[in-house]
Amino acid sequence: MSLIRDIKIQDAEEIGRIFNYYVLNSISTFELEAISVIQFQQKIEAHPKRLPWLVYVENEKVLGYAKAGDWKSGIYNKSAYVNTYESSVYVENESLGRGIGSHLYAELLARLKDLRYHSVLGGIALPNSESVTLHEKFGFRKVAHFEELGFKLGKRIDVGYWQKMNPDR
């Protein structure tokens, strides 16, 4: 049995396990060191309550998560980026290809639509054909490509941004 629900503080260990795999083994995130359970608990507590952070649970095990954050949050106290969000989706490496990311993204976007989002952005370290396919499946289109923004695993990494506008705007 599977379900998608709001994140709980008790999920910190499992989402840490999922995220830290990508920290240590991929370019999907530019974090260089694993994040502790305490740090994930702090992230969960600090996440704006009005914005979704969802987990995909199967047989009582978290297999993925998706969240939305304010675009450019923390940079400006008063931001003109109202109703513009950045999305993140991570699925347990062993569970890739099962549609979990699609289920999470569908629910995340539905909740953002309820919040009357104007624009949702997804940043993707490139190459990453799976993430590009996921975003484009949900109507995102590529709007930016930055060359060699990051350096990880011994190589320079490009970053692309995909954007989805609210069709009801």
Instruction: State the CATH topology.
Output: Aminopeptidase
Beta fraction of the residues?
Answer: 35-45%
Cα Rg: 16 Å
How would you describe the shape? globular
- Count all strands and give the number: 7
CATH superfamily: Gcn5-related N-acetyltransferase (GNAT)
Query: Quick check: average pLDDT?
Result: 94
Q: What's the SSE pattern? A: EHHEEEHEHEE
Structural domain count: 1
Distance between the termini: 36 Å
Describe this protein's structure.
The chain has 169 residues and is of the alpha+beta class. The protein has one domain: Gcn5-related N-acetyltransferase (GNAT) (Aminopeptidase), CATH 3.40.630.30. Helix content is 28%, strand content 36%. It is built from four helices and seven strands. The protein has helices at residues 12-25, 37-46, 100-114, 129-137, and strands spanning 2-6, 53-58, 61-70, 84-91, 119-126, 141-152, 155-165. It has a seven-stranded mixed β-sheet with strand order 1-2-3-4-5-7-6, with helices on both faces. α1 (12-25) crosses α2.
Identify the notable features of this structure and list them briefly.
169 residues; alpha+beta; Aminopeptidase; 36% strand; globular
What's a quick, concise take on this entry?
The protein has helices at 12-25, 37-46, 100-114, 129-137, and strands at residues 2-6, 53-58, 61-70, 84-91, 119-126, 141-152, 155-165.
